[in-house]
Design a protein that fits this description.
The structure holds 2 protein chains of 2 kinds. Chain A is built from 6 helices and 3 strands, in the order E-E-E-H-H-H-H-H-H. By secondary structure, chain A is mainly alpha-helical.
Amino acid sequence: LTWLTTLEGVLVFESIEEGRNTESTPNTMSTITRNCQKTFDRQELLQRCLGIDSFANKLLSALASSLPVDRLQLRTALDQGDYATIARGAHRLRGSASNLCAAPLLNASTALEEAAKEGSKTDITDRWNDMEIAIDEILRALEAEGIV
Amino acid sequence: MPGFNPVTKSKLKILIVDDDPISLELLQLNLESFGYEVETATDGLDALGKIRSFSPRIIISDVEMPELSGIDLCREIRRRPATQYTYFILLTSSSDPDSVLLGLDSGADDYLAKPFRMDELRLRLEAGKRLLTLEGRDMMIFSLAKLAESRDADTGKHLERMREYSKAIAIELSESEKYRSIIDAQYIELIYLTAPLHDIGKVGIPDSVLLKPGKLTPEEFNVMKRHTLIGGETLQASAIAHPEAGFLKMALDIALKHHERWDGSGYPFGLKGEAIPLCARIVALADVYDALTTKRVYKPAYSHDRAMEIVREGVGNHFDPTVAEAFFRIESTIREIQTSLDEDEDRSSDLPLPIAGLPESPLPLPVNT
């Protein structure tokens, strides 16, 4: 189990190796959460973009451009022990990931934000590693889609 | 109708505040598709600047932002008199229930936990619009009615009786085959609320004419007639500025057209028959009956019977026959309202006094006519 995070008050256990999720209370999961199981869910995103494909691509492209910058800023903040900046940066990324239906990035940024707010250096380091994996994963997926 | 265009609704303005540009863009796209005019700000401080230039009626703000958080922004907005009636929705974090409590405590009207569905946001905005409309409506009507009252020496309980008469006639008409589908509970409530605004335009009539104790000259009467246009212009401007306030359309119809006559001989446009809005036809009758049964500086108070007689003479020329029939059917209710809100103890004259110099008005009508 790679991530343990809270989405709409529901615990979600994510298994990267097996590519499946185990939900603790499946009946209470929202449509959004159910659909957010891929690196990013283009169908769900397209629906949120009113079916405008070019708009969805524009948002994905914006994410592809900002992610390397965000990664650098978060890494710098981590080196400096600036937890407030980490929490803010992770929170902002969580918003993007949520809107783009990018579940792994959403889970990783949520976990990092919570760890930064709690101020536990060990937890932050662990969560940062997960975050790096999630960033790499979505950048690869965007590249495969021809977005990057 | 020169100078009067139909009210064209402008869009309700929403300001979105979020430091995540992707969230901003996606929200903007969806809100614009819902029919709103949208502006964006990237944090609380940026939002305060945009509020000054954009004047949003609704603000949707993320909680956690640099510079000024959504909660601090909400507190600041509630503190400022110019913005305290803005509807505020906070986008809270589902993993942080404390932010919901903090947000509501800061004065937010509603919250949405992220991630949220756009159709849920649309429904919550509809609820917000309804609340804004009700709050704004009651405040505006009360203020305007008081303003109208302050400029009219004759009124007393006139406004109160007027709306009771108008409501009673509307209720009676709502039971008729012809108007059953038009007059519903909301229509009755609106006419009750907006009938007192019929003479709001008198605020623009000079004292020398409005408060003149004797008869008006034809020139003065022409000045007095302008109160319909002044009232119409005022309410039209309000209707454009507050498109969510649908009640202003009825208020505008009443203020502008309650002196029109069924046969086309009224003012300001000389509209005829059903070209005159129904609400204006109802209020016209209520206004005349009340003017007849109360003492004015230019006439004594007539008895109910004499007033009914004069109204009967006006059916088909001054008054809509259908509205008048409804009025006659509820005569006992009208009399009850008149008695319970009466303020003239010396109701003695049953003789119609000639109104000199006013050939346009054969009946002893309101506004010194």
